[in-house]
Structure formats: structure tokens, C-alpha cells
Amino acid sequence: MTSHSFLSVARVRRLAHPGLRASSPLSTTMALAALVAAVAGLLLPWVTVFHGFAPLNGIAAGGGTYAGLATASALLLLAAHRYAWAPGRWLALAAASAAVAGSLWIARSVADYASDPGPAAALASPVPGPGPWVLAAGAALVVVAVFLPLPQNSRGAGLDRAGLNGAGLAGKGRAGLGARLGLGATAFVAGWIHLLLVPEHWGESALLGAGFLGAAILQLALAISVVERPGHAAHLTLVVLNVALVGVWLYAVFVGLPLGDAHDHGGAAGWSIGAGEPIDTGAVVTKVAEIAGAVWAGVLISRPVRRPHGAGQQVQRARHRFGGAAGLRIGAGSRGGAA
């Protein structure tokens, strides 16, 4: 088989499976670098107090939300490139811009505090850290990558010419992309909030902190899985996990968990409706995301998987148009070898 044959077959496969279309190597590399920078910026010290003995990372310094925006912007940009989803680029731009502005604002606040710490100057001795700058740099990479030109084959032009851009093939094209991204967003929001709460709950109980960490890892993994590998298994796992987490939270609110200081919430902010922990804004956002995700995933599970009408004919037309020459060359090569 000649190199042209391989290229023709590969082109047909990219048309039949939009997720396989190539994206700009530079912009994809920048998005991946932004992911690394977001995690590094969150974990690095944002300010160090007590003469260098107490570094505070992005979670403790209040930068967790901006790190989440930076992470989400990088993931959105990767999805936009992978599936030729133009709105994703502008959503990524908005999230990344907010992350840059927020992290720089915190960096400025930390610098002001370090220059004038007040009466506790001798004890606190605050020193700004690199965390917010690393996070801002990572989010800025996404901002720049959004405006980089993409190759023609990653914009879906060939897909449009082949007539495959309508509903996608076997539910894997752009028809189900909005539903998958929406479901992934609910899992990402809940998982990220759980991740930010790990240090606080680990201080109360190692078991409680490990539970929050496990929930965060599972939800963040499912946020990617329901987009990249959608199916009943991922959706059912998300339903079971979210229902279980909501159930545990309700027990913690009305009764209280027998872990750490579960029954000592006198000074905690929030609305108390039971003997357990009060309900704060973070809890409300998390549980709304989990309930919405469970319902959303349940609806997707109940839908039968149907192949879009005419999808098989579209694939055959694409093969005939782009793979016909490859087939002729393959046949000619076989006859030549037999002779």
C-alpha cells in the first residue's frame, strides 16, 4: 500500500469520527502546558508567613476558584480543538481571562499585605510566593492559544463537504457534544469543590479528608470520561456516585458524621437545619451540581442509542470520494504482486 493510500484511508476515518481530527500541535501543546501550570500554581506557595515556616498554597490563599477556571479553560480548548467546536474556544477565552484577572488581583493583594502587614509585621513576616504568577501564566497560555490559527482539517471543513456534520455518526459526533459537555461540567464543578475542601476536612479527620479526595478524583475523572468515552457505564457510575454523595451529605447535615469535629459547628458559617454541619454556599453549589448531574446522566441512560438516519450512506459517500483512489491503487498493487 502506498503512502497516498494510507493518507486517503486516514482521511476517511477522520471524517467518520470527528474526535480523530487533528488539531494545531502548538495550540494543543499550549493547552496541556496550561493544565500543568494551573495545578502547579494551585500547589505552589502564594504567600509564606512566620518567617518562611508556614507557606500557604492557592487553596489556603483563596485562589482555588481561579485555578479551577484555568483548568476548565484548558479542557474546553482541548475539546474545542478535538471536536471542531467553535463556541468552546470563546468559553475557554472567557474562563482563562477571568483566571488571569483573579490570580493577578490576589498577587497584588498579597504584595500589598507583604509591604504593610500591620501590627503583626514582626510575627507574620509575609513574603509573596510564585503561585499566582504561575497560575496567571498558565491561563494566559490559553488566551493566546485561542487566537492561534487551526489547520483546515480541524475546523470540520472536510466533514461539512462530506455531509457528515449534521448529527454525527452513531451518536459520537457533534449532536451529542453539548449534552456530554454539560454533564461533564456538573461533574467538574462538584469534583473541583471537593478537591478544594480536602485540606480543611483532612485537618478534622484523615478518613474524612480521604473521602473528599476520593470523591474529587472520581468526579473529575468522570467529567472527562462522559465527554471522551460516553456510555451507560460512565453515566451509571456518575448517577450512583452522586446519589451516594448527596445521601452522605444529608446525613451529615441532619445527624452529623462521627468523624473529627462533626458535632462542633458552633462557629461555622452557614444555615443550620439539623444537628450536623451547617449549609454554606459551597455545599449548595456542590449538591446542585451533583443532583443535576445525576438527573442528566439518568436521562442519557434512558435514551436508546440510535444510529442517525443515513449515516451509513454518508460514510460510503466519504469512502467513495476520498478512498476511491486508494482502493484502485490497492487493487492495482495486488494484481501486480500476483503477476
Strand content: under 5%
Largest sheet: 3 strands, antiparallel
Write down the overall geometry: flat
Q: How many helices does DSSP assign?
A: 13
Termini distance?
16 Å
Average of per-residue pLDDT values: 79
Low-confidence stretches: 3-23, 155-175, 307-311, 325-330
Please provide a written account of the structure.
- With 339 residues, the chain is mainly alpha-helical.
- The protein has two domains: 22-155; 172-305.
- Helix content is 68%, strand content 3%.
- The protein is built from 13 helices and three strands.
- It has helices at residues 3-16, 25-43, 64-82, 86-115, 121-124, 131-146, 157-162, 177-196, 198-204, 206-228, 232-254, 281-302, 311-338; strands spanning 45-49, 54-57, 127-128.
- Strands 2-1-3 form a three-stranded antiparallel beta sheet.
- A hairpin with a 4-residue loop joins strand 1 (45-49) and strand 2 (54-57).
- The longest helix is centred in the first third of the chain and has 30 residues, at 86-115.
- It is flat and about 65 Å long.
- The chain crosses the membrane at residues 30-53, 59-78, 90-111, 131-150, 181-199, 205-227, 239-259.
- Keywords: Membrane, Transmembrane, Transmembrane helix.
